[in-house]
Prior knowledge:
With about 130 residues, the chain is an all-alpha fold.
Amino acid sequence: GKDRIIFVTKEDHETPSSAELVADDPDDPYEEQGLILPNGDINWNCPCLGGMASGPCGEQFKSAFSCFHYSTEEIKGSDCVDQFRAMQECMQKYPDLYPQEDENEEKEKSNKDLEAASVEASAAKEEKGSS
Length: 131
């Protein structure tokens, strides 16, 4: 594997270390590279993708994300609508893996927020008017 376990004694700790530092290997698949690799390719193993590149919709995700990443359109990604639609359709087949905001819940929440704001505004008006 990539790890090496070394046991040390108390005496080992009392003397200066003789460990040699090895330069990072840019081709090390375990090395944290970020989303874009030095050569400009997408790092599909980046933890920042949250595993989206694997799973039942991994290929659709890769297709849509690649299209967007390499898009040269004036409105970046505007040429990728079909790929994103395919990805979304796939994700809707697996709601347990890809939870989505329920539109009705969102509408209810925004309506409640509006009602609360309007009640607060009315109360503030009444306070001003009664002084």
